[in-house]
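ingest -> validate -> predict -> emit
validate: passed (alphabet ok, no gaps, 199 aa)
predict: started
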Amino acid sequence: MVYEIKKIAGRSDLKRCHSFEISNFQWRSIYRPRARGCVGYIENKGFLVWLACEELHPKADCVRNYEPICMDSALVAFFRFDPACAEYFSFAFNARGSCLAGYGSMRHIRDCLSPDQICDLGIRSQVTADGWQILFLIPESIIFYFQPKAQWKKTRHIDCNFCKICEHPDIEHHGSFVPSGQRAEEFHRPEFFAQARII
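emit:
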């Protein structure tokens, strides 16, 4: 599966980007809200990501960054900009815009982005008539800070996946854009990410 990321000038161009559905629910998913999103690339600036979920009363107890966002109803984006690396980025958000963002090779072996780096994401959360949505930018400065040898600007390819999850037993669910393996930790395995091409 190849997801095409369009080059755009800014946020107003997101409507031209290819959308994706987060519809592959796996494991113990007792709740399956509709979720979707899209990604655009702003040359020499970064990747603009929009994620949305049709969910009227999302669980959003975490009020600060670095809290266990995945115990809330969360939207998550995974990116690997250097396929030669085992490490990848993860960005998890609840409906308040609280964020848990990290970089590493496994789910529990990760470096958190600094407060300044999280600020640079420019996170915007919004409650809508039918749910909630998140908009954020992954700046090139952050990408190259963690993956200085990444060649994605030349190859025009990266790896990514997008998820809608909650680990709280009352509304547990594990949905993804690309199907994963047999357990939740495998959302964090880049071999299950989709290849994306920048066009």
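The mean pLDDT is 93.
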